[in-house]
Structure formats: structure tokens, C-alpha cells
């Protein structure tokens, strides 16, 4: 083990250290009829995430952070945008387009690798600049749940059951107490998703991070039978969109969140306007892990497509599961929008379209189901297990609201 300026402290709970192979972009899509074997498939999970494999774009914490830091000034007479806060979703989409030329097949929520009569499904992610609020609030025991959630929620969109998770914790100076809290959250997240924390890596890199700072990334791998893959190919106009509620902002859009907070005149300790918790509690609420709920619904049949609502919000994520020529119509006021989003929009004077493209707005996962299946799901719901009929599949392109 090298003991230079960057000391890597390997953690491996199963006795095996797993490291990335050097050639990160070889491969072809296993989901096409022309597929004749796959070496590696790397996935761009969402348009906000300016990263494939080891490529990252972040001006604050490198290389693992997804969100950029606050950058540029906004005209006080105009509503704030994600781009004002330093994150350009269109640039992320352009990067995906360019990388797709080198690695055909990227763009899904998870990458599929053929293994006998099944697919291994893999996803990787981080928690973005939400870690900066963890530094400020001192809340470190839930950020690990966010980390696990961002990957397992991606791979379950294929109908895959998560098998194991690996994490990467990087810091300038290792604070064992803080790291233990973070990893406890990761363990909690793995328990919620019924997968194993197989191992991880701790990197202590003096000079790269400020005192008290760290960054996180992780990777989840799951499995699904080839004849049970959820891929959206059977979606038709008239199918129904079922929304599963979020706990709040989850782990996307925090560059804009921090910008709004900075200009609102409020602090993290203040009560959330319209809510019964502090702003810190609302923003640090851990991402919902949907694995068990989604797999239960999939097991009952009728689920044709699943979209994880992360970077890109409704606008960019829902169409990713549709065949060509189909779009979505979202019913306004068809679900409960949490107070945190109402505050963010009002305090930041943010346009509706920007909110829908940046945040989950209270819906963290969307299932595309047949009309008959939607009736069964809605009949089975209760107050503790809320689901919403939020829209339908229509002919056309993109997402409209009515």
C-alpha cells in the first residue's frame, strides 16, 4: 500500500478488494439485437451528473462531487435557475451525447451485463453538494443512506434486486468519528435495500479537501432475469404514470438549494416556512430507498417502465423510459408537494419549468403501468403507503402539464 501524499486505506468486509479496470469505456449495448458480447458498460445515470466512470465536473470538491459550487450572479429581477447556481444540465446532456459515440448503449439508469439467463445491473453515483450541508449542520449519519439510495434506486428501475454495494470515502484528514457515522448510514441504506455492503475505499488526501470536508461515491450491483427486465419497450399511449412520494429534495439540486438559502435571509436553524421542521431537517432528510416497494409492485405484474426522478427532474427523466414517439402528460395537483419545494420556489422566484427540471417535487420514482394495473395499485394503497396517479403516456414527445 502506497503511503505517499494520498494514503489509500482499503476497507473490504468480504476479504476481496475490488478496483476499477483501466479501460473504462470499452463495450457495446447488451440490450440490442446486434449485441454479441459486452466487456464493460458505463452508464450516465442522469443529465445533471457530469460524470462517466472517472470523469467528473466539479469546481469545489474533486473528483467525486456531482453538483458544482455556487457560481455567477443572478439578476435580482429574474428567478433563479440551476444554471445560475453553476450547474448546466444542457452541458451535461451534450457530454452524454459525445460519450455515447465512444461507448454506445449508455443513457439508462443502470448498466446491464449478461450473465447466463440473467443480467447483472450496475449503477454508480454520489450525493453532490448535499455533503456541504452535512458539514454545516453536523448531520453525518444519514448522508450514507443518500449514497446507497442514489445507486440502488437507479438499478431497481430495470427490475433488478440489489446484491451488493461498495463505497468510496475521500477526505483531507480522516476524522474517525465522522467517518464512522457516514459508514453507519451506508450500512443502514444497505439494510433498507436488502443488499450487502461488500467493501469500500477510504482515501486520505491532504491538500485536496479543506478541514472537515469529505466526499462520497458508491456503486451498486444487482441481478434480474433476462425475461423479467423492465425496459419500457412495451409502453403504449394510454398507460398510466404512478408516482411514489419522496421525502423531500433527496440528493439532487443542492447547488440551487444553497443559492436560494443564501439569498433568503434564513438560516438552517430557522423553521421551514409552511412546515413543522427546521430548514436543516427538511433539507437533510435522507433519500427514500424504493427497492422493496418497487420490487413488490413489479412482482405483481403490469409494470412496463420505471423512472428514478433525480437530476433533470420530471422533464428529463420520465421520457428516458419511453419508446420513440411517446411523451407524458402530468396532472397538476395530483400529489402532495412538500413544503420545502414551495419555499424554494417562492424564496428563489423560480419558474415552474425550472422546478420541474431540477427537483423531484415530491415524487421520487415513477412507474409506467397498464390501466388495469393502475387500478389495482390505487385500490391497494393506504395512508401509510401513499401512491399517486400523476399522469398518462401520450403520443408526442417530452413532458406536458395540465
From TrEMBL:
Pathway: Purine metabolism; IMP biosynthesis via de novo pathway; 5-amino-1-(5-phospho-D-ribosyl)imidazole from N(2)-formyl-N(1)-(5-phospho-D-ribosyl)glycinamide: step 2/2. Pfam families: AIRS, AIRS_C. Keywords: ATP-binding, Ligase, Nucleotide-binding. Residues 237-399 form the PurM-like C-terminal domain. Signal peptide: none annotated. GO terms for biological process: 'de novo' IMP biosynthetic process; adenine biosynthetic process. It catalyses: 2-formamido-N(1)-(5-O-phospho-beta-D-ribosyl)acetamidine + ATP = 5-amino-1-(5-phospho-beta-D-ribosyl)imidazole + ADP + phosphate + H(+). Residues 116-224 form the PurM-like N-terminal domain. SUPFAM superfamilies: PurM C-terminal domain-like (SSF56042), PurM N-terminal domain-like (SSF55326). One of its GO terms (molecular function) is phosphoribosylamine-glycine ligase activity. It comes from the Eukaryota. One of its GO terms (cellular component) is cytosol. Its EC number is 6.3.3.1. Transmembrane segments: none annotated. The keyword ATP-binding applies. InterPro entries: PurM-like_C_dom, PurM-like_C_sf, PurM-like_N, PurM-like_N_sf, PurM_cligase. Belongs to the AIR synthase family. This is phosphoribosylformylglycinamidine cyclo-ligase.
